Amino acid sequence: MATSSIQDLLRSQGLPAGLFPDNVKSYKLNLDGRLEVELEKSCMTEFDGRVHFDREVRANLSYGGLVGLEGLSQEELFLWLPVKCIIANDPSPGVMLFDIGVAHKQLSISLFEVPPPCMTQEDMEGKGDWKKGFEFQK
Question: What percentage of the chain exceeds 70 in pLDDT?
Fold first, then answer.
């Protein structure tokens, strides 16, 4: 299967184009369905909360899902938990299911339409930092 971008590949497998950040350097899909995605650098982004992508992310790609994920974690209650799988339209259409081991999160598929910007941890920590609003009051 010849696809020009990771976004095209994801769409062809019933997944939204924005599951990976905008800094994908390359990807490889093995004959056994193992997907290997290389990013320019590890980074953080936001969907419904903060998410961290390692420089290399691996998963088994099947129609509508990424299973056996490695290299992706999500912050929940100040803890970073590995995302084990992502499934589209389960249990209902328009929903993405994130399995983070101790819980399942259901997110709107609309959050994943466009590849999110890749940010450093410093950029993410400064984003929406409430302390910045008080800097000029000294």
Answer: 86
What CATH number did the domain enclosing 77 receive? 2.30.240.10
Calpha distance 18→45 (Å, rounded): 11
Question: Residue 73 sits in which domain range?
Answer: 6-127
Q: Strand, coil or helix: what is 93? A: coil
134 falls within a domain: no
Cβ atoms of residues 86 and 19 within 8 Å: yes
Q: Both tokens of residue 7?
A: 């976004």
Distances (CA, A) of 121 to 19, 53, 110, 125, 126: 19, 11, 24, 6, 9
Tracing tokens 């994943």 back to the chain, one arrives at 112
pLDDT above 90: percentage of residues in the chain: 69
Question: So what's the pLDDT on residue 91?
Answer: 66
Is 1 within the bounds of a domain? no
pTM: 0.83
Is position 138 within any domain?
no
pLDDT > 70? residue 135: no
Answer whether residue 78 is part of any domain: yes
